[in-house]
Amino acid sequence: MESLRFIDLFAGVGGTRLAFESQSFDCVFSSEWDLHARATYQANFDDLPHGDITEIPAKHIPPFEVLVAGFPCQPFSTIGKQQGFKHETQGTLFYEIARILSETTPRAFLLENVKGLLTNNNGSTWNTIQEVLSELGYFVKHAVLDSSDFGVPQRRRRLYVVGFRDPQDLESFSFPVPTGDLADFAPHVEWGALGYSISKHLQSTYVFKLSDGRPEIVDQGWTGPIKTLVSSYYKIQRLTGTFVRDGETGLRLLSRSECLAAMGFPSDFILPQSRGRIYRQLGNSVAVPVVAAIAGQMSIALRR
After folding, report:
1. For the whole model, what pTM was predicted?
2. Catalytic one of 53, 73, 229, 286
């Protein structure tokens, strides 16, 4: 089988690498600026990512066929201020992707971001991105996919953008079709887990301060996926969080193993960081099975 090499930019803890390697792609380069995420990445892949991509010349990157990047989504998220390209640092990182595409001209790329990127600044941000990619010589398709449609027990809608230099490769590519079966989170609950409890005081003064059905609470009768796991989950946000009716106080945060399951990571994935950093790292990552399904379709198109 033809070897397909990829580079893993804004690599985080390596969710995208897991996905692409499961589809017989070979990672030849990775970059991640966060020191704690780099440590987690190294613990799992025995490979320390290079640092800040803005400081890495394209000529220092080995030859490759596919660029993969889940560039920072905070400037485009509905949770944030939606600053888009106006963000002083993160909003401009797309242009680092464009720089590398321009100087290395790989056969294809996959970009991942929040769906809010499509509507940021009345759509002008997305229009700019499409124009830049077209000017670089790429033919592009995009889709918003929900991880819960691909066997992941979490509702996580993300924008995926695929580009090919050869229009015939694009014609051969199609986004994966949802399985149609929503995965239940309850089978993944670590019942009796200790050490993740939410205090009784916080429950009475904040979590249950209103009778509005918030937050989402998983119990023995729960069916279906949970809400999106976000990087700020450790802050116990009652509107966006999912908690478990379990633990020392009767209510707790998701455990390490539950977060891994919610993101589609293998249960033996190493998370050497503190609990807060675990939530941040996984909340910033990708739903592995979704990216793997897209990588599989890209493999078919590129190996046709």
Report:
1. 0.91
2. 73
